[in-house]
Amino acid sequence: MLFLLIDFPKFKPIALEIGPFAIRWYALGYICGITFGWFYARSLLKKQRLWGGPAPISLVQIDDFILWVTLGIIVGGRTGYVLFYNLPFFVEHPAAIFKLWEGGMSFHGGFLGCVVAVMWFARKNGISILSLGDITCGVAPIGIFLVRLTNFINGELWGRAADPSLPWAMIFPTGGDVPRHPSQLYEAGMEGLLLFTVLAVMIRLGALKRPGLILGSFILIYGLTRIVGEHFREPDVQLGYLWGGLTMGMLLSIPMLIVGGVLIVLAIRRGAPKPATAIH
């Protein structure tokens, strides 16, 4: 059934080129993800019924927070990749740490960078850490979806070997002549579309009224979907399989299941805050 295999479509790595300036698909995924997430966050903050009253974060504050979370994603994502995925290489070539255009970002590192940005910004501005975390996580799947699509466009992070009879098995340019799962698309669907849909439904049902519920749900569901996706994704060549056939992505996602579950339980037990009573 080899005649059914799909040849990977060859995309140009540069999405937009204006004179000497070039924007690669990978960078464009981050730019669009942050921009669309910002617009969505603003729309959620404008709807008081979702919060049970005025949103605990102003539009001006969310506008200012965009820079903070962007830095958190970039610094955290790169730091995570260096520490978790390729430390020996970067110890020998420290200058390569700053070559972001060559790729190499870790979701788990970027998430931790966002956590730092949320906590720091919330304390600095006297707003709820949990509510800011909720709104950040509520929009995050948009960026995850777009970045996973750019992983596919770049022909990177391809999947494990697949049965040649699988209708959508692909031959990737850098993956040899082995038919593989297009795991980037699996992850885009689970970590992006599925997670966004679940959180959007929860928000519509009033989850933002319970601070920490969307945050915990994001962490838990992402951890689950990432572990499932790792079963189809080829591990990084410099790491391979770790203990018991686990991958680094799986190991980093296991703590997310615990933290997410705890935050959900606490948010449910805490209940929704009571609306302020007017003084007559």
From TrEMBL:
Pfam families: LGT. InterPro entries: Lgt. Pathway: Protein modification; lipoprotein biosynthesis (diacylglyceryl transfer). Keywords: Cell membrane, Membrane, Transferase, Transmembrane, Transmembrane helix. It is a multi-pass membrane protein. GO terms for molecular function: phosphatidylglycerol-prolipoprotein diacylglyceryl transferase activity. It is found in: Cell membrane. Its EC number is 2.5.1.145. The chain crosses the membrane at residues 25-45, 65-85, 105-122, 129-149, 185-205, 212-229, 241-268. One of its GO terms (biological process) is lipoprotein biosynthetic process. A 1,2-diacyl-sn-glycero-3-phospho-(1'-sn-glycerol) binds at residue 148. GO terms for cellular component: plasma membrane. Signal peptide: none annotated. It is an enzyme of class 2 (transferase). Its main location: membrane. Catalyzes the transfer of the diacylglyceryl group from phosphatidylglycerol to the sulfhydryl group of the N-terminal cysteine of a prolipoprotein, the first step in the formation of mature lipoproteins. PANTHER family: PHOSPHATIDYLGLYCEROL--PROLIPOPROTEIN DIACYLGLYCERYL TRANSFERASE, PROLIPOPROTEIN DIACYLGLYCERYL TRANSFERASE. Belongs to the Lgt family. This is Phosphatidylglycerol--prolipoprotein diacylglyceryl transferase.
